[in-house]
Amino acid sequence: MEKYLSESSDIGITRENRRLYIVSAGEDTILGYDEDLNLSDAINLKSSAKIQPKRIAWLNGYLYTANSADGSICKINALTKEIKRVSVCPYPTDIVAADKRIIICCGETDTILSLDEGLNVINAVPACSFPISMAIDSKKQKLAAACLYNKKIRIYDTKTLEHIDEIDLKEYPNAVAFMDEFILAACSEEGYLTQGNFHFIKDGSILKSIKVNKMPSCVCVASNGNIFVANTGNRSVDIISSKEKKLIKRIQTPEMPDFLINFNKGVYLSCIIDGYLIRMDEDGNIQKKIRTLSEPRGMCIASL
Fold it and tell me: How many CA within 13 A on the CB side of residue 118?
């Protein structure tokens, strides 16, 4: 049986017990799907007020959501559905898991926080002007943060959050990812809903730039090396060959694409307005499209 490695670095995880989770910001709900997009789980996060979960991460049996409306983080036991919620910062924009820590970037306070599994703050560092997206390298040693308003990517040590490098882009980075020795950045030239550019960055310098569609919002690397870029500004996904470093395909999507994730040799896309969840193969061919709850946003892969 083919084995896969989960986001939480569990060894020996098989495809039969992995699940795709997606948050609905419109309904304050988490939905779980298998790779064929059959609904297998639903967790209601609703409280006395809207929390609007927009990003989600998985770590050691628990789901963690970053909630933009009330500045909180939810920790959810995936089996018992027990929920713990704590306030952390105004408008958390992204959340990632690393070893035994959860890392959050806070847009309004320009900070990055490291929390233990009990949601206690371990470390807090000043980041940059409105950190909007984060990524962790495959060795879980480096954290990249896209700093929207001062047009930079900052690199941090994952454990200590020590600032170790900085890349000046001269345009607005919306999304960042790691691929082998490269940092991948999707940017807008002039801000909201403007021309997009995709950059291969190596050793602190831009090696190759490619024009993509308007307002690229997410980057995902498929296991075959193709790079998917979700363009929120004009409802499309661009596919870039990492080998040839050129645009090879453009797909029109039914509504505004928000988030991409690689799962069991497929690429999954959430679309905000009409609530679509789309499965594509690694060459960008749409295989299945379903409607979920309103405003589906971030996704993660869980091992159960």
Answer: 2
Cα–Cα distance for residue pair 256/65, rounded to 1 Å: 21
Question: Which residues fall within 8 angstroms of residue 119, CB to CB, at 6 or more apart?
Answer: 73, 75, 84, 86, 88, 102
38 Cβ partners below 8 Å, 6+ apart?
A: none
Q: pLDDT of 138-170, one tens digit each?
A: 999 999 999 999 999 999 999 999 999 999 999
CB–CB of 185/196 below 8 Å?
no
79, 143, 155, 188, 237 from 73: Cα distances, Å: 18, 20, 23, 29, 30
Give the whole-angstrom CA distance, residue 73 versus residue 85.
6
Give the three-state DSSP class for 52: coil
> Taking the CB of residue 139, how many other CB atoms lie within 10 A of it?
8
Tell me if the pTM is above 0.85.
Answer: yes
| Closest of 235, 155, 157 to residue 196, by C-alpha | 235
Residue 198: closest CA among 222, 174, 165: 174
